Amino acid sequence: xxxxxxxxxxxxxxxxxxxxxxxxxxxxxxxxxxxxxxxxxxxxxxxxxxxxxxxxxxxxxxxxxxxxxxxxxxxxxxxxxxxxxxxxxxxxxxxxxxxxxxxxxxxxxxxxxxxxxxxxxxxxxxxxxxxxxxxxxxxxxxxxxxxxxxx
Length: 151
Description:
The protein is an alpha/beta fold.
């Protein structure tokens, strides 16, 4: 995946459809990760974005159309990505408190305004935790490259 340190080209459409991303929110479109803040992206978040790349397949435009219009679709796409991200953390970090803090953070984000308040905190937490055990060994491995030209 190529990391582009520029705003996501569809940001106005995202906001128009009731989502409320922060200025640090990262987006994936095809094989590109848009990183408007230009900050370092941790490995677990790259895993999350690589799940979206896999979900989008060869048709990122169609995926984004459905993602923006269908809250149920958006929930399941994000729950899968957060589950892979959480699994990655659980495999790398043995500190249970750190794991729980991240599960709570992921559930708060998934149930919050960034995604249009599409679910409750408790449902988000249950889905992420249970799905993290179902994500296979084929979940994405970190192989991102940073754009030298910033776009």
